[in-house]
Specification:
Length: 316
């Protein structure tokens, strides 16, 4: 049985579509609609965001708002470290996926000598750098900076000096670089890739499980297989992007991709994974109620969140 602490990161600096910063509150509204006391019963903390930067001119075109994201990373990583050192389980609710790099940094800062496995449940690989990004949106970069990866072999951009400086500072946050290794990543549901990302995935043979494979194997067998393949890691972090689910569930996310998980599959799969005592952190991101109807995505996200939390706080 684990003591859960909610960490709210209402930031959307890394997204290309506005509205993800409202996702946490949308999930809270969903909880109220279900007459749930979830957000009253759990201890929570909100990280100060830098969304005011969205009104400023973009200078770092190949890593938009990277200066503000660096400030946010410092706060997120410090809170994750503090939570883990306080023997609490950080359950992170964030806006866009860029801040996941701060979560990873915080875990490693708390446990600098431990090896961290990453289960990345997402439609996207998020392994671009300022040198390869086609959009400049930093929610496509958290794994690359956690890996200390520039991917110069696939370079298409020439970022300015300030971008490079902040990129290197992000990679080295906590004086740990790299924070994770390719052999310790497991992608689930990734199905929308650029060629630069495919290059790294193939080069480093990153482990993957498609939605079709998960259905063929079944939830329990798939989860057990992933956990077994990451058994060499001391700790495991799970990052759940709601765009891993099919748009038929809801279009309430910035980058929906067809052929994803159902909401029931996502809930059962996530709950099965967090049963592992090695799982030290769970993060949910990219709920965008401005793109939704009747708050459907937030309602589904809350159901997943509640099922995961129940698993974490239940003695088997």
């Amino acid at each position: 049985m684990r003591t859960v602490k909610l960490i709210e990161v209402k930031s959307e600096l890394g997204a290309g579509t506005r509205g993800a910063s409202l996702g946490v509150d949308a999930i809270k509204i969903a909880a109220m609609d279900f007459h749930s006391l979830y957000f009253k019963e759990l201890k929570s903390v909100e990280i100060q965001n830098e969304n005011k930067e969205l009104f400023e001119p973009i200078i770092n075109h190949y890593a938009k708002h990277i200066n503000a994201i660096y400030k946010l990373y410092q706060r997120v990583s410090s809170e994750i470290k503090r939570t883990l050192k306080g023997r609490r389980f950080p359950l992170v609710l964030a806006g866009d996926h860029s801040t996941a790099g701060g979560t990873i940094a915080g875990i490693r800062m708390a446990y600098p000598k431990k090896r961290l496995g990453v289960i990345w449940i997402d439609a996207h690989a998020d392994i671009h750098s300022p040198y390869t990004t086609p959009s400049g949106n930093m929610h496509g970069m958290p794994l690359a900076l956690s890996l200390g990866e520039d991917n110069m072999e696939c370079r298409i951009n020439d970022p300015i000096e300030e971008t490079v400086m902040f990129w290197n500072k992000l990679k080295n946050l906590g004086n740990i670089c790299p924070k994770i290794f390719y052999e310790d990543i497991f992608y689930v549901g990734v199905r929308d890739l650029e060629e630069q990302e495919e290059y790294l995935i193939n080069k480093h043979k990153i482990k993957r499980l498609s939605v079709a494979e998960l259905r063929r194997r079944g939830i329990s067998r798939s989860a057990d297989r992933i956990l077994k393949m990451l058994d060499h890691c001391d700790l495991i972090y799970i990052s759940f992007d709601v765009d891993s689910m099919d748009p038929k569930v809801s279009k309430g996310t910035g980058t929906p991709v067809p052929r994803g998980l159902s909401n029931i599959e996502a809930a059962n799969f996530a709950a099965r994974l967090v049963r592992s005592p090695k799982v030290c952190c769970f993060e949910m991101v990219e709920v965008n109620p401005t793109l939704d109807k009747e708050n459907t995505m937030a309602e589904n996200a809350f159901k997943i969140l509640r099922k995961v939390t129940n698993q974490l706080t239940t003695v088997e």
